[in-house]
Amino acid sequence: MVLKRLLEYVGYEPGRFKARWISGSEGQKWADTTKEMTEAIKALGPNKRFKKD
Amino acid sequence: MNKVTENLRQTAAKLLKDQEVEMVIGYGLGSEAVRTQPVFITSPDDVDKLVWNPFCVNGLTKYLSDLKTLSGKIAVCVKGCDSRGVFRITQDNIIPRDKVVVLGIPCAGQMSYTKLASKMDVTGQLKEVDDKGETLVIKTSNGDFTVKKSEVILDKCLKCESHNPVVADHMVGDKVSVTDTPDDYDEIKKYEAMSPEEKAKFWLSQFDRCIRCYACRNSCPGCTCRECIFDAIKPDWVGKEMNLDENELFHLTRAFHLAGRCVDCGECDRVCPMDIPIRLLNKKLLKDCKELFGMETPGSAEEGGSVLGQYRLEDPEEFM
Amino acid sequence: MANKSLKKDQLKNLLNKVAQNSQLIAPIQSDGITLFRPVKSGEGVVLEYQNSVMPPKDYFFPMSEKMFSYDTSDPSWAIKLEEGVPSRVLFGARPCDVKSILLLDKVFDAEFRDDLYLDKRNKTTIIALSCNECRHTCFCGAFGISPGEAEGADILMTDLGDRYLVEVLTEKGEKLAATCSDLLTDDDGSGAGAKEKAVAPAKEKQLNISIEGVKAKLDNMFDHPIWATESLRCMGCGTCTFVCPTCHCFDIVDFNNQSSVGYRYRCADSCQFGNFTRAAGGHQPRPSKTERIRQRFMHKLRYFVDRYGDTACVGCGRCLEKCPVNLDIAQIINKVKEVG
């Protein structure tokens, strides 16, 4: 929670970093979250920072 | 000589003479009129080296970590802001509380060396400082200079939540009556309100000029890891190369290692040779931890620890 | 070559012209601090600064630079060397900074010639700028440096109020001056005298420090208790060494991201860091701040003199100003002279 806020504070787009608690028995939730997050990040485009050339 | 200096010397002399402490860490006159330098007194004959004036900007609690192997007790002078560093260091088990004798000095605000140097000739030796309320008359071997306090005060002192130390075994001055003004984080809110692009532009230009001297880390009473992640070579978590990516990784990691632990003394910001506003990162973390977990500024009380290392049922759980 | 003169309002045109022909590096203000940066034109170049926060050393010996890269998936395993820098002009270096480059030459252009350094050095023309004022921490006089002389620069310019005196000192300087000849006029002969007057405040107001006898004293001070006393307040950061125009210690590191591609870089290192001089196996001959502080001052004022015949300090005052705990080399010089 705190890290997410820090990253957004220094200019990472909201949604690029996410933390979710998902139990081993919650397969559907895991799949949904992954899908949702993949779509959100695809919409944001590639991250331009933290990339060593 | 001012009253606090006099008290300080007397207290230090007594502590050393009675062999209650092995060393007193305080402030001594610096190489320029408006600077002081940390001094380490081990003999009652040397207590005259101790001074208290409005130029005692350094935080001295970090030295407790350096000197933790001394067999005797250590007395350390603290202002309100760095008094919280004492509890940071004792809570982190760097040195036991009963090995430290805290000499508390109430403080109405310290003056910035950089600001003063742009207003007066600072190259002389300091003779005396006359506090006239709104102004300071700084008497030096190169002449007397009158400066307006509001023009030369350290930025961090404009908002101060504890003018009086939060802990003191000996209080060597009278409590100051300046009203405590806890940070309203207005400045942080200003940066929060910017768009991601604006934020990125601002922060990347700050990180870009970092020279990785690690003064921010070394001055911090919260940075006491036996081996720092930034010094590790195998694996080299953060590369030694000075470029934007490594610099950003350094700054975010440094800041986050202090999340819920930073005592808000502002030393990192003061010591940065490149004027990177490091404190804006720490302040953001303080603001969030306060809002999310109802944390008080770390180091304000003897008990406690890292808020991120604790769990309470009522903690928010936005990640569920 | 005879001295030239440049009208003040023509400086920007001169810099614009220089920037058209080569890369121009000049002091600019950024976030409130003065730094040398590549600029596209004379716009924004500041002149009223006394010393940049970081020295121009970075353009000869960068804080961090790639040495070569490789790709092991390439059957020849060829090592790809870095391309050199373009032809460059460094404008606005102060006399102390110019001297520091001469000192770096002694290290990098001596028995072992350092190609990375020499590439930058040879391709850079230095236009130095005399100091009319000094900072409160300046003491270049202690090392025989004058605010109005810059041996080692290609051109020296001095602000004379209404115009600049332009002294062309080398062949490289002549070449550069020739490209701007339409902006320069011949000096009427009054320049030299006016220069003396213009730099007088910087000479007189600076700290009065003398290093006489310090080297001889230090020769016998390796085990002196002063190092333990003075190092107590050191925090062990690298500020002093990184803002220093003559410090030149570096570390070499290989970077490989667990792929076939990697590179080797070198970056500035500091004798104040705990990792510095730590040997394989963990032995550290300089285990505490005491040895590290001693090394810093000894290297500057004694070892460098032994090896190269000059002190490795130019009195720029950067470390005096930036040291967070006021560990002041000028004060140390005076203390060394006092102690028995």
Verbal overview:
The complex is a heterotrimer of chains A (53), B (320) and C (340). Chain A is mainly alpha-helical and 53 residues long. Chain A has helices spanning 2-9, 27-44. Chain A has one domain. In chain B, the strands form two sheets. Chain B has a five-stranded mixed beta sheet with strand order 2-1-3-4-8. Chain C has 340 residues and is α+β, with helices and mostly antiparallel strands. In chain C, the strands form two sheets. In chain C, strands 3-2-6-7-8-9-1-10 form an eight-stranded mixed beta sheet. Chain C has a four-stranded antiparallel beta sheet with strand order 5-4-12-11, with no helix packed on it. The mean pLDDT of chain C is 95. The interface between B and C is large, with 42 and 43 residues.
Brief summary:
Helix content of chain B is 32%, strand content 13%.
Short key terms for the protein model shown above:
heterotrimer; B: 320 residues; alpha/beta; 2 domains; three-stranded antiparallel β-sheet; 12 helices
**H and E order of chain B:** HEEHEHEHEEEHHEHHHHHH
Q: What is the straight-line distance between the termini of chain B? A: 61 Å
Strand arrangement across the biggest beta sheet of chain B: 2-1-3-4-8
User: What level of helicity do the residues of chain C show?
Assistant: 25-40%
Q: How many domains, in number, for the residues of chain B?
A: 2
Major sheet attributes of chain B: 5 strands, mixed
Q: Tell me the β content of chain B.
A: 5-15%
Uncertain stretches of 5 or more adjacent residues of chain B: none
What is the count of β-strands of chain C? 12
What is the H/E order of chain C? EHEEEEEHHEEEHEHHHHEEHHH
Q: Which class of secondary structure composition applies to the elements of chain B?
A: alpha/beta
Shape of chain C: globular
How many H/I helices of chain B? 12
Q: Most extensive interface: pair and counts? A: B-C, 42 and 43 residues
Judging from the principal axes of the Cα atoms, what is the shape of chain B? globular
Number of strands of chain B: 8
Radius of gyration of chain B: 20 Å
Spatial sequence of strands, sheet with the most strands of chain C: 3-2-6-7-8-9-1-10
Characterize the biggest β-sheet of chain C: 8 strands, mixed
Overall radius of gyration of chain C? 22 Å
Unreliable residue stretches of chain C = none
